[in-house]
Each structure stands twice: as structure tokens, then as C-alpha cells.
Amino acid sequence: MDLEARAHSEHPEALRLWLRLLTCAQLIEKQVRGGLREQFDTTLPRFDLMAQLERAEGGMKMNELSRRMMVTGGNVTGITDQLVAEGLVERLEVAGDRRAFLVRLTPKGRKQFQDMAQQHEGWIVGAFAGLSTKDLATLHRLLGKVKEHVSSDFLETT
Amino acid sequence: MDLEARAHSEHPEALRLWLRLLTCAQLIEKQVRGGLREQFDTTLPRFDLMAQLERAEGGMKMNELSRRMMVTGGNVTGITDQLVAEGLVERLEVAGDRRAFLVRLTPKGRKQFQDMAQQHEGWIVGAFAGLSTKDLATLHRLLGKVKEHVSSDFLETT
Q1: Which end of chain A is least crowded, N or C, by CB within 10 Å?
Q2: pLDDT below 50 — which residues of chain A?
């Protein structure tokens, strides 16, 4: 089905643009999810969680990890438990706080993440391969305007 | 959190563009879901289902409706039951096929959908209000290139 065929209104250009934006995001996300599943037998929330940890060499507290994972909405505790069981992630006690702990990638987890990240980058580069360097920069700039406007609008109205 | 802060790689421009695209789609979708909930006490899958029916004056078969709803992934049968119970949608028998039936908006459902669609359009127009008419056209054109490339790439590899 083509989402864009839906648009009919007083402002069809805005609706068509929205549906095209949504379609692009969904198509790329579908490719990424499919690739992670087929090549690494893993999911986007698992990949995202590992991506967060990869950037925190000393580890990350669970509440910080949960906050950063809000976007993909995975079950952070459940995914962490799985990754710990698979030896990809480890829990560390926090000195001076007996109730808190840090989570970080094991060397095995870091290695596996790097393999996935390299493939992931290839999928994303491929998704935009129909655009010239100039097109990429223009698209980035225009989406920046959208993001800025929606963010400020959203903050005002919520 | 800012998704784009995540990008670091050999091709940071492609990853940054992807995360910006995803961020824009998520921000707008969040506004739409919030608006539907607050102003109409309804959900995006319900809105989408009614939008499909609004375009089929004679009604639509359930399997066609399910196919078209794949994007937002709602439970078509459950949502239809709800909307029937609320008098917004009705089921019709199909002449010559005792097992099939059509679903269509009632006049009350059509009226309610039109109110929602008008608001929805306002939110979408608002989301892109930071862009000039020329920017809108450029963004639509560039996303068209992305869509075309990803679609053909996706068909080749799946």
C-alpha cells in the first residue's frame, strides 16, 4: 500500500509530505530490523541498548539507560537480563551505593556490537545511496528546520 | 535526549541524517497521537481505520481493511468492534457471500472523522510551518528519492 495515496484535503502538500516522511522512516526501520534479525538474530531494542553502552566505557546506571532507551521503548530490564545471560553485558556494583549498579558491555559484547554497527552503517548508507552529497546536506538542513519547529511547538503546547 | 548525538562512525553524515529523519517522524507522530487523545479521546489506529473507511463510500471488506492498516498495526477486528459499539461504523452483509461482510462509516462516524481529519491536518500543517513553500517542495522531492531507492533496494534483497 502507498500511504501517500491517502492525502486529500485543503493542504494536500503538507499531508503528502508527512506521509512520505513517515513512509521513508518506516521503510528504513524495517530494513534495519530485518537485517539485525537475519544477520545477527537480534532486535532493534537490543542493538539500541548495546549502542548506548558502547558510548559509556565505564558503564551506565540503569535509570540513565532507561531514559536513553525511551525512543525505541524496549523493556530495558528484560533486555539487560538477556544480554547478561549471553555474556554480552555485565553488572557492576557502585562504590558507596549498595542499591545502585552500573551496566556495561563485556569485551565480547563490545566486539559483537562493533560488527553489528558496521553492518548497520552499511544499511543506512545504502538507504540514502540515491542522493548526491549535496542532496544529503540539503535534506539534513531541511529536516533540521522541521525538527526545530516541531520541538519548540511541542514544548509550547504540552 | 537527542538521537543525533549518537552518530559516530565512518559515515557520520548518513547516520546523522537517518537519526534526524527518525526524530522528525517520531516527534510529529507523538504530536498527532497526543492531539487525538486529548481532543478526541481516540487513538491513531482508530483514526487510521476511520480514514480508510472514509475513502470507501460503499464500505470495505475486512481483509482489505486489514491490509491497509498494516502500517499502524492496530488490531483491526478489535477496533472495528469498538467503533461498531459506538455507532461510528456498521457491518453490512455482502450479497451472494454469506461469510463476508463490508464495514463502513455511519453518518455519525463520517461526521466525527471529518472533525478529526480537520484537526489532524492542522497539526501536520503546523509541523511543517517552519518551512517555506520552496522548502516543502524540495523536502518532498528529496524524500521521494529516498523512498524510491529504499523501496527498490528492499524489493531486491527480500
Answers
A1: C
A2: 1, 158
State whether A83 and A118 are in the same domain. Answer: yes
Helix (H, G, I), strand (E, B) or coil at A94: strand
Q: What is the pLDDT of residues B26-60, one digit of tens each?
A: 999 999 999 999 999 999 999 999 999 998 888 99
B60, part of any domain? yes
Nearest CA in chain B to A154: B31
Q: What is the pTM of this model?
A: 0.84
Distance, CA of A96 to CA of A54 (rounded, Å): 25
Same domain, A140 and A87: no
- Look up the domain containing B38 and give its range: 13-123+132-157
CB contact under 8 A, A9 and B121: yes
Best mutation site among A8, A17, A32 for testing chain B: the one with the most B CBs within 10 Å? A17
| Cα gap B121→A7, rounded to integer Å | 10
* Residues A50, A94 within the same domain: yes
CA gap A133, A131 in Å, rounded: 7
- Which residues numbered 25-84 in A keep a CB inside 8 Å of some CB on B? 25-31, 34, 51, 55, 67-68, 70-71
